[in-house]
Design a protein that fits this description.
This protein is mainly α. It has one domain (about 1-215). About 85% of the residues lie in helices and about 0% in strands. The longest helix is centred in the last third of the chain and has 30 residues, at about 185-215. The chain is globular and about 55 Å long. InterPro entries: UreH-like_TM_dom. Keywords: Membrane, Transmembrane, Transmembrane helix. This is Sulfite exporter TauE/SafE family protein.
Amino acid sequence: MQEFTLFVTFWVGFLGSFSHCIFMCGGFVSLQNLSNGKPNASLLIYQLSRIFAYILLGAFSGAFGSIFIASPKARATLFFVVGLVLVFIGVALFFRGTLLKFIENERLSRAITAKIFSLKGKNRLVNFAIFGFLNGLLPCGLVYYFLAQAILAAQPLKGALVMAVFGVSTLFSMLFLSYFLRILGERLRDFMFKISIFIVILNGIYLAFLGFMANG
């Protein structure tokens, strides 16, 4: 079951990264512009720091989930609630309207973007590490999905592993952002994103069903 979760995690993250992640991480787009869009040490440090933030969030989420595993009823309720939350997130991501703006705070993204622009002429790796970490803490619908999976992992190490796999799955597209923006048309990127959202919603329905049946 854990292997299947990690497999789904990788592909949802990989497909979603070509659309939602690129435009959600406005700060990183700015960073790409400062480096002429070419992968270098600064960009790599930025991305690794972002993934490290995910791993910490995953560990905390796994620890939170471990509270519920002692009681079968509590675990079933957790599955049901998380499943409903995932469906909610999937619908919000699909329609990208007011609902998505509510769960993804655009002000934080704009603030970090402004800070990254201030890095121009200050090419210090520590700056990129700090803002990469902050980028990993930004409110994001896709991140919420994977944090829910980390909660269900019900162990700090497993939760951290889920988020590490998610971070790695987005690394390829984010490092070669400029290249993919050129070769992937908007329709193809949107199609890939909708596939990932379809998986999110199905997974949410499945988890809610498991929790409902276990409580019944």
